[in-house]
Specification:
Layout: H1 2-31, E1 33-38, E2 43-48, E3 53-58, H2 68-98
Antiparallel strand pairs: 1-2, 2-3
Length: about 110
């Protein structure tokens, strides 16, 4: 029994260390920026790894043709790609801390 208590204490300590690392990483990911573009760079989107859009830049040339639907599609494509990159980055980095174990409420 005594040995089991020591192992349990180690597990609790390791879980606490992991929780602290995850919390710190989540703060970093909330500020880490990723970028995606579409239309050959005519639309560029910047977002955080926590899925918050920070900027959308549209090259004036994208407006020359007057095709609003095309421009909307370019914006959607760039936004979705930036969010995908941010989420994938978060998942990859948190997985490195947890050893691939999915923890509820993390993603």
């Amino acid at each position: 029994m005594r040995n089991m208590g020591g192992n349990m204490n180690d597990l609790v300590r390791q879980a606490g260390v992991m929780q602290n690392k995850i919390a710190k990483l989540q703060q970093e990911l909330a500020e880490r920026l990723v970028e995606a573009s579409s239309g050959g760079g005519m639309v560029k989107v910047t977002a955080t790894c926590k899925q918050e859009l920070r900027s959308i830049a549209i090259d004036p040339k994208a407006m020359e043709g007057g095709d609003v639907e095309m421009l909307q599609d370019l914006v959607l494509t760039a936004v979705n790609e930036a969010l995908r990159i941010g989420k994938a980055t978060s998942e990859r980095e948190i997985s490195a801390i947890t050893g691939g174990i999915r923890l509820p409420g993390i993603f």
